[in-house]
């Protein structure tokens, strides 16, 4: 007569090795705590006085602008695509979730910036030529940066949050940092044209 002995199931709840693994994993997750937010704490701090969020416009395929570029004619410019518009809307939701309300919103006069600023849905958008691109106008770089620094210096350090929608070249010249489409940096006003960079905001 042949006797068949059942092998021990390695996944059995009675298996001491499995029990040790489960207990270890439980302790590990408990130690790790809740998942961190995708946004830095500075984003939630934007509602404090003297904060500025400087953003690159949302996704607009291509580089620069067509040769026939005209400021008030969006058909001659590089514009947001569907992904860029969705990106701008989602960024506005992120800001709303962070409790941002009553922000002053300024934008470059380029169509892709104005559309981004409006899709944030934070309030009225005011055009600010100091935020205009000089990517293909390097002779205007010093003037634009000087105008923007003067504007920042004029803002009250105890005022409401300010959102600036502009271009990568502007952000790089002001902060020394690059910015992907829909990304930017948070600044702390100090009464000068060189506010301190508190942190970066990544794109959606």
Provide a concise account of the structure shown.
The chain contains six helices and six strands; from the N terminus they run H-H-E-H-E-H-E-H-E-H-E-E. The chain has 204 residues and is an alpha/beta fold. Helix 3 (82-97) packs across helix 4 (111-119).
Strand line-up across the major sheet: 3-2-4-1-5-6
Beta content: 5-15%
User: Poorly predicted ranges (pLDDT <50, ≥5 residues)?
Assistant: 1-13, 21-37
Amount of helix: 25-40%
Helix segment count? Answer: 6
Assigned CATH architecture: 3-Layer(aba) Sandwich
Number of strands: 6
Instruction: Spell out the helices and strands N to C.
Output: HHEHEHEHEHEE
Query: Can you tell me the CATH superfamily?
Result: Phosphoglycerate mutase-like
Molecular shape: globular
Report the radius of gyration as a whole number of Å.
Answer: 25 Å
Distance between the termini: 69 Å
Broad structural category: alpha/beta
CATH topology group: Rossmann fold
